[in-house]
Every structure is written in structure tokens, then in C-alpha cells.
Amino acid sequence: MKSENKLIGAGLLTAITASLCCITPVLALIAGTSGIASTFSWIEPFRPYLIGLTVLVLVFAWYQKINLKKEIDCECETDEKTTFFQTKTFLGIITVFVIIMMAFPYYSVIFYPNTEKQVSIVDKSDIKMTVFEISGMTCVSCEVLVNYEVNKLNGIVNSKASYENGNAIIEFDKTKTNETEIEKAINSTGYKVTDRKEN
């Protein structure tokens, strides 16, 4: 039974670790400390391995639970009471929790407030587009946090961050803000602007 509890603990730990890089930006936004958002981005390259390990651990825990049940189904008397933590129900709850944690990057955007705003453009010649190269973004949560921080600035027309491309394409009214202010907003998330190109 102790080995089963260790397996469940290991499954939980690997699932949480695998999702930590995507959970941190949401927690940072909620806490109001967006600068810590990139703290666990170094975990992202290991995420597929952690997910694989989590699945293996849970499959083995379920195998043990089902196999152990077959072995115990004998007519011998056992005085040992099983606790809730040793039941299939508890293992089922843990399995559902692990699936929710591993899928977190795909639904994390629901935790961010809507940052779209109505922009009135007086003169189209004042609109400028700049591509900011950003290091450290690893998932959709990172993109949403960058867009959220940039859209706090006045004069932002459109902000489109992409972790896959490692950049953010920002359209802004140059009479209301500038590249330096936008770069500061991006850097405040913990992700760093490495280069910028005007279009």
C-alpha cells in the first residue's frame, strides 16, 4: 500500500511540474506580480517527458490497484481496513486532477481578463507596427500575459504575441506611446525583448 501511495504522489508531482511553466503566468497575474511569470519557463523542454512519466506512473498505479483487488478476492480473513486514500475512488480523483493539470496550457486563457479595447484612430499616419523578438515564452499563457501587459498602455491598437514565433507584433499610435514603453511592458512580465524591427 505504501508503494501505491508513493506512485500516486509521484504522478501528482510530475503532473504539477509539467504544468508549472504554464501555471506561473496565471498565478503571477492573479498575484499582481507579472515579473515572476517566466520563472519556470526552463521546464518547458522537459514537459513531454514529464507528461510521459506521469502517464506511466498512473497506468502502473491503476494496474496495481486492479491486480491487487484480484489477489485479495480470496476467502481468507483480513483485519486490515482500507482507507479512502487506498481506494479506486481516490485514484480516480487523482487521475482526473492530473489530466486537468496536464491540459492546463490549452484552457489557461480563461483566467485572463479581456484586454481588447476600443481604439479611436485620428490619423492613420500615426499608426506604427513593430515586431518585438521575445525570449522565454513557452505556451499560450505566456502570449496572453504579454498581450495583457502591453494592452495596459494607451495607444495600443493591436497586440499579437506568439510563443511559437518568439515575438509580439504590436500596432500602436506613436503619438500616445513608443517602442521603449512597450518594451518595458513586455520585460515586466519576466520575458525579455531581445530585438525589435519596425515595419
Question: What are the salient characteristics of this protein?
Answer:
single chain; 199 residues; alpha+beta; Alpha-Beta Plaits; 2 domains; 6 helices; 48% helix
How do the strands and helices of this protein lay out in sequence?
Blueprint: H1 2-31, H2 47-72, H3 88-102, H4 104-107, E1 127-135, H5 140-150, E2 156-162, E3 167-173, H6 179-187, E4 192-198
Antiparallel strand pairs: 1-3, 1-4, 2-3
Helix pairs in contact: 1-2, 1-3, 1-5, 2-3
Task: Describe the protein.
The chain has 199 residues and is an alpha+beta fold. The chain is built from six helices and four strands; from the N terminus they run H-H-H-H-E-H-E-E-H-E. It has helices at residues 2-31, 47-72, 88-102, 104-107, 140-150, 179-187, and strands at residues 127-135, 156-162, 167-173, 192-198. Helix 1 (2-31) runs parallel beside helix 3 (88-102). The N and C termini lie far apart (63 Å). The model has no long low-confidence stretch (mean pLDDT 80).
